[in-house]
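In keeping with the milestone schedule agreed at the kick-off meeting, the structural modelling team has produced records for the first pair of proteins. Each record is given below as a sequence line and a structure-token line. The laboratory manager (R.T.) confirmed that both were archived under the project's standard naming scheme.
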Amino acid sequence: MERIELRTQARTTHGKQVKRLRAEGWIPAVVYGADTSARSVQVHERSLFKTLKQAGSTTLINLFVEDEPEPHVVLAREIQRNPINGQLVHVDFYQVRLTETVKTMPRLEFVGESPLVKSGSAVMIYGMTEIEVECLPTDLINSIPVDVSVLEGMDDNILVGDLTVPSGVTITADPGDVVASVVPVRVLVEEEVEAEGVEELEAEAEAEDQATAEA
């Protein structure tokens, strides 16, 4: 797979001055990891947004610093965003060794449709939407397909051990963990009603306690 390239500049701005940096359209970042000391860099926001959209945290990036001829082969690790507007705030790039394994979290790509869900007699329950894998950087994958059409009975489920990944990729999660299952619509409705009842009782008890305290 052809690697995505990202151009960065060495950064000397730190602390409170970083706010001005962001206002000028630059995002502070750090490059660290194997065979390199931690380096502060800055990336143009538009370029970084485009790169992360393509690479996420599971695709190798050729990261260039200033005019260095050779890139740092990295993975985007800590991607920090503003919790209010979702704008990028800071990114850590981890430099890898191509001969050593790394761990990433590819997404689970659910395909197909359970006959029970299609008939309206059941609903799909997802136990996870991504999963940790370990492999060499050159064997990284972005997603793992999960065919939910095999869920034909109410007792059926898909476990981690049922997932298929390419050679060289190892799933580190417990093989017995549930990835997806189906639940009868009736059972789900009963659980929701029961949960609502518990909440109402808790609210009534809290109101009684408050009234007693005020008396």
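The second protein of the pair:
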Amino acid sequence: MKSSCILFFFLSLLIVPLNGQTAQVSGSWIESGIKWTKPPAELQLKERSAEAGLLYFGPNNQFAFVYGTVIQGAKWETLSHGDGRVVYLGTWKLDGSTLRVEFRLVSRTVSKENETLPGPIEKRTIQLNGGVLLFESMRFRLDHRLDDQLLAVFEGESARLRDGGQH
């Protein structure tokens, strides 16, 4: 009995940091250092927009990498539905401070000639470094305001793929 309690104690020490780090990664991340633009002053809109890379780490190891236009107001943020976007879907796995992702291109607003979708599976690593993610020479910061929208993109594109791309 005593040895099983000791074993449980040591195992719990191993599990807690992993769960904490997984929670640290979960959700949406926006590319840092993007160039924001404001609409013309005569429109009197208190918002700005930018093309940005977005990462999403969802439940059940769902992963999305989306490149699109983000519109930001004083207290809100949204992924534009009227601008072009590129969507990659896949899975993620945390390994210490490294995220291992597998993904494939599943949709692009403007098709490229001779491109077949979904594309081939790609494997990459993403480094977690002091609250910043480093991926493909880009830096990302956590931004939970896009969680619901990126989950919706993941679910919508996944459903479209399951239905044979007929959405």
